Amino acid sequence: MDVSKIMDQGEDFLLGGEDAIKNLSEKDSASIVVVSDSHGDAKDLLTVIKDSENCDCLIFCGDGISDLSMILGTVLLSGSQIQIPPVLAFVRGNNDFQTFALKNPQTGTLTNINVPPEVVIPVAGHKIFATHGHLQGVYAGLKNLREAAKNHGADVALFGHTHVASYSTACGMLSLNPGSSRLPRENQPKTFAKIFLERGRTPSDCSFFAIDGEKILPFKYPVLID
């Protein structure tokens, strides 16, 4: 992402600018990094971001917005060489604030960035619905999450909250939780996920990865859910 676009947030709540968002929607294929629940650990979140530099979009599913905002602020103020994907999406978890501020290094002015409870991202002929999951009661199942996604015309539903790397392709929809980058549960490692979308093909291609310090390793045992 062009550093000048980090503070460019439109009505869709996405960062990156209109051109990048339009380009993402018009691509024939795209790779998306999904991460969630960093809960105060900006270091491991930064490891994920560094690994995503060749991807088309990064989506953060909540509970750790302060970590993400700190990284973005560092990129802005220090001219860091960290490469952020062209489009950045994020949502508010049950432990997050509704806004965060970024400082323009040229003018010194602050820009408030809104953190919505949900976002819809158009990608390569698909729509991704992203939310944290607590408002849809994901501990009790994915029915409400899938219904919310369908109401937005989405065929991919992303969520966090449970801290368990998991996925489902039931009901003609890819539903995915990347796990937690700090506090994993059910004896899983710290994880994140990548999904690959192609125009005209049903979404199903996803991979999970473990965070081991600064190393990224394949994680082959996410939970398959109904």
> What distance lies between the first and last C-alpha atoms, to the nearest angstrom?
36 Å
Walk across the major sheet and give the strand order.
Answer: 3-2-1-11-12-13
Elements, N to C (H/E): HEHEHEEEEEHEEEEEEE
**Structural class assignment:** alpha/beta
Determine the mean pLDDT: 96
Shape: globular
Rg on CA atoms, Å = 16 Å
DSSP strand content: 25-35%
State the major sheet.
Answer: 6 strands, mixed
β-strand number: 14
Please mark out the parts with pLDDT under 50 across 5 or more consecutive residues, or reply none: none
Number of H- or I-type helical stretches: 4
Fraction of helical residues: 10-25%
Please describe the topology of this protein:
Blueprint: H1 18-26, E1 29-35, H2 42-51, E2 57-60, H3 65-78, E3 87-90, E4 99-103, E5 110-114, E6 118-123, E7 126-131, H4 143-151, E8 156-158, E9 165-168, E10 174-178, E11 191-198, E12 205-212, E13 215-219, E14 223-224
Parallel strand pairs: 1-2, 2-3, 7-8, 8-10, 9-14
Antiparallel strand pairs: 1-11, 4-5, 6-7, 9-10, 11-12, 12-13
Helix pairs in contact: 2-3
